[in-house]
TrEMBL record:
Protein name per the record: Trehalose-phosphatase
GO biological process annotation, one example: trehalose biosynthetic process
Its EC number(s): 3.1.3.12
Originating organism: Rothia koreensis
Entry's Gene Ontology molecular function annotations: alpha,alpha-trehalose-phosphate synthase (UDP-forming) activity; trehalose-phosphatase activity
GO CC terms of this entry: cytosol
Keywords from the UniProt entry: Hydrolase
UniProt family annotation: In the C-terminal section; belongs to the trehalose phosphatase family.
Keyword Hydrolase listed: yes
Length: 520
């Protein structure tokens, strides 16, 4: 257990995320510069960064490149170096071919490789050490997402003075699925190093608490559990035990829970309260509203409609090209409607933006081939000289173009098979300032719980999906406005600033409780 004498840094508020909040771009003179990344998280944390002395620890997106810390607008950025092998094993491997599919209902089969795990652990340690070097005495550190689940406990070992928060942006799976992970104990122990753990849905927080109970014997009383620091050597023991029992013991067992509890009672180790509950993330309502109000955005939206031949209905899908998004289901439903004659290419168009993502990961390569095959077949069958069935765009677009696309469209189709939240749905609703338009929303998104006024679908039920697409197209203006009003009220009352403020206030309260008198 580390003492309080380690090195300390200058920053009172430190965000730790896999990615830095900037993207590298090349300007007209051919110079490479940084631009603030779009997205709610970055705009929610910008004001917190400038009102505190804030730093952001993250990867800058290139392999084998060591960058010195630098400042960009309100951010002090601390780049973390990753070698090409680490990008393969930590980022593409363990983060995106083990944890990502495991946490998204095993839609793609997760792969378990010991070398990936070793690198995940080593890279998490590098992030934790970098945060520990940046944070001032008693600073607050907020760790983001599934790529960094071991950082909270590592940080607590390195710097027991810190207040540590963790937010999981993706779903947390049920015990029956999580239990497959050979390193399930280490991951839970890593997370429990935080004072406060935030999840998207109440169900995610519940899954996490149940996993802690069944796998570690850490029992929650409501949202709170008493956690005992695991000494470094216990990590090692568990590692050995894992090798012995690999794959022979898929389900948690009660004996090990009892043993864990007994071991804790026999040791004189620091304890703290960890709290786990839900904080559904949202969007920057002001930024979206402002962009949607600009004359130039409205002009661009009209232009998009014209370029598509002014169809009566424009359906829109906007996703990272990811198997969790249900893009194939969407194409199937839409293609059947064209085939049945319920839709025609003259009267309706479908725009599918599929932004490139994790392009070297096998399941993403395979998915791209499937989707592009489907789009090619549909367009081959239904296109005319002047109209196309699916306008497929394998690009990422800047924020202003995204908002113009939302404005140009009548129906946004979100058909995720599993999705932590889905912010595209919220952005579409907020950008429609006149309250027209329809949202078809998969019930398997975090957003579905918050937006009961959307037209909700089970994307696996293709007939139900087709009905919803037709229903959305035929909805009266009054019904559109009625539903939009309900959804807009919800999103305006809970924007991303509200999200970060609530989390950070609760984090400091949890810490205060922890610093209170020790129970005898
Ligand atoms: C999801 C994750 C984020 C991630 C983003 C883009 O939203 O929750 O942590 O940054 O996808 O994925 P990428 O792999 O490009 O960072």
């Amino acid at each position: 257990v580390a003492s309080e004498e380690g090195p300390v840094g200058d920053y009172d508020f430190v965000v730790v995320a896999n990615r830095l909040p900037v993207d590298r771009t090349v300007d007209e003179a051919g110079e490479s510069t940084w631009r603030r990344s779009p997205g709610g998280l970055v705009s929610a944390l910008a004001p917190v960064m400038s009102s505190h002395s804030g730093a952001w620890v993250g990867w800058h997106g290139a392999a084998d490149e060591e960058l010195e810390p630098f400042d960009h607008d309100v951010f002090h950025l601390v780049p973390v170096r990753l070698s090409e092998g680490e990008v393969r094993r930590y980022y593409e491997g363990f983060s995106n071919a083990t944890i990502w599919p495991l946490y998204h209902d095993v839609i793609a089969p997760p792969e378990f490789h010991r070398t990936w795990w070793d690198t995940y652990r080593a890279v998490n340690r590098r992030f934790a050490e970098s945060a520990a070097r940046s944070a001032s005495r008693n600073a607050t550190v907020w760790v983001q997402d599934y790529q960094l689940q071991l950082v909270p406990a590592m940080l607590r070992h390195l710097r027991p003075d810190l207040t540590i928060g963790f937010f999981d942006h993706i779903p947390f799976p049920p015990l029956e699925i999580f239990a497959q992970l050979p390193w399930r104990k280490q991951v839970l122990t890593g997370l429990l190093g935080a004072d406060l753990l935030g999840f998207q849905r109440p169900g995610d927080a519940q899954n996490f608490r149940r996993c802690c109970d069944q796998i570690l014997g850490v029992q929650f009383d409501g949202e709170r559990a008493e956690v005992t620091q695991t000494p470094q050597e216990q990590h090692e023991d568990e590692e050995n035990e894992r090798f012995r029992r690999a794959y022979t013991n898929a389900m948690p067992n009660v004996t090990s829970r009892r043993r864990a509890r007994k071991e804790r009672l026999n040791r004189d180790l620091p304890t703290w309260i960890a709290r786990a509950t839900s904080y559904p993330i949202s969007i920057d309502v002001e930024a979206v509203t402002e962009m949607a109000s600009l004359a130039s955005t409205k002009r661009r939206a009209r232009q998009i409609r014209e370029e598509l031949g002014n169809p009566k209905t424009i359906y829109l899908g906007v996703d990272r090209l990811d198997y969790t998004k249900g893009i194939r289901h969407r194409l199937k439903a839409y293609g059947e409607l064209l085939n049945d004659g319920d839709l025609t290419v003259e009267s309706s168009a479908m725009i599918q933006v599929a932004s490139p993502s994790r392009e070297r990961v096998a399941s993403y390569i395979e998915l791209r081939e499937q989707i592009e095959g489907m789009v090619g077949r549909l367009n081959g069958q239904f296109d005319t000289m002047s109209h196309t069935a699916i306008r497929y765009l394998h690009h990422g677009y800047p924020f202003e173009e995204m908002i113009a696309l939302y404005l140009a469209s009548d129906v946004l189709v979100v058909s995720s098979l599993r999705d932590g939240m889905n912010l595209v749905a919220k952005e579409f609703v907020v950008s429609h300032l006149d309250h027209t338009g329809a949202l078809v929303l998969s019930e398997f998104t975090g957003a579905a719980e918050q937006l009961p006024d959307a037209i909700q679908i089970n994307p696996h039920d293709i007939d139900g999906f087709k009905e919803a697409l037709l229903y959305a197209k035929n909805m009266t203006i009054e019904e559109q406005q009625d539903r939009m009003k309900g959804m807009r009220e919800q999103i305006f009352a809970h924007d991303v600033e509200d999200w970060s403020t609530r989390f950070l206030e609760d984090l400091s309260k949890t810490r205060e409780d922890n610093l209170g008198p020790e129970p005898s």
